[in-house]
Amino acid sequence: PGNAGGLAPYRISKAGVNALVRNLAHETAHGARGFLIDAICPNHSRTDMGGPDAPRSAEEGAATAIWLATREFNVGDKTGVLWEDYEEVPW
Q: pLDDT for 22-75, tens place per residue?
């Protein structure tokens, strides 16, 4: 997501979000303190920002966030990363 073509300021801001997420996850002991810190990419979804012609519904865009918020988490599970469609996105 956001890793090809123009829009350098946008991509740089997303890299900053990813770095913040990793650092906050580290500071909260990767879930051991009861906090899970993650970021998601909802893709281009039909929202006020995405507009009415976006290919995904708002519900589809929110699905990964809902999954993360309701998942059963055990210490040692993956947290502190960027997720897209239920999968970790390397950056």
A: 999 999 999 888 889 999 999 999 999 999 999 999 999 999 999 999 999 888
Enter the pTM of the model. 0.82
Classify residue 2: in a domain, yes or no: no
What would the 3-class secondary structure string for 9-43 be?
Answer: HHHHHHHHHHHHHHHHHHHCHHHCCCCCCCEECCC
Note whether residue 1 is domain-resident: no
What positions carry a catalytic annotation? 10
Give the domain extent around 55: 8-88
Domain count across the chain? 1
User: Residue 52 falls within a domain, yes or no?
Assistant: yes
Distance from C-alpha of 82 to C-alpha of 68, rounded to nearest angstrom: 11
